[in-house]
Amino acid sequence: LLALALCAQATSYGTPRHCLKPPPTGFCGAWFPQWYYDPSSHQCKAFIYGGCGGNSNMFASEWKCQQSCLPGVPLGPVCSLPPVTGPCRAHFLSWAYDPAAGHCRFFIFGGCYGNANNFKTCVECMKRCTGRKFSQISPVCRALHVDLKIYRLHHDPNAWEYD
Prior knowledge:
- Residues 19-69, 79-129 form the BPTI/Kunitz inhibitor domain.
- It is found in: Secreted.
- It is a single chain.
- By secondary structure, the chain is of the alpha+beta class.
- It folds into 2 domains: 2-69, Irregular (Factor Xa Inhibitor), CATH 4.10.410.10; 78-159, Pancreatic trypsin inhibitor Kunitz domain (Factor Xa Inhibitor), CATH 4.10.410.10.
- It is built from 4 helices and 4 strands.
- The strands form 2 sheets. It has a two-stranded antiparallel sheet with strand order 1-2. The protein has a two-stranded antiparallel ribbon with strand order 3-4.
- A hairpin with a 4-residue loop joins strand 3 and strand 4.
- Helix 3 packs across helix 4.
- The longest helix has 22 residues, at 134-155.
- The chain is globular and about 40 Å long.
């Protein structure tokens, strides 16, 4: 019974079954950058998800794909990569680790051709790149959000509030 349970979770090569599914491009016209595991190259790769449909071989970041489909494999120097905006013109608020500063900084991601030093939240970025506990990260991220508010005030006229 135990062998049957293990077989349902992973292939004979140790790759979880959900990671063997084809990338779910989706059938709607949205443009969401996502990641999937490619079993032929044994790597996580970027693709554009259309927003409808999908399967369990779809991840919000390369790191999450690697965590799920390559457990125990060292992830490399992700946090030393420079933030890459990319050539696309979307306006996604992202976070990248800045080794010189010792913390994460926000940047605007265009939606395609970035790299793995690209996180949706400050907390996710700090956890991955510093290894600190949430209680140590939370005050740092709160302080960094002040910079983010200042950025929004300069770039988004709707961010101003009037009394």
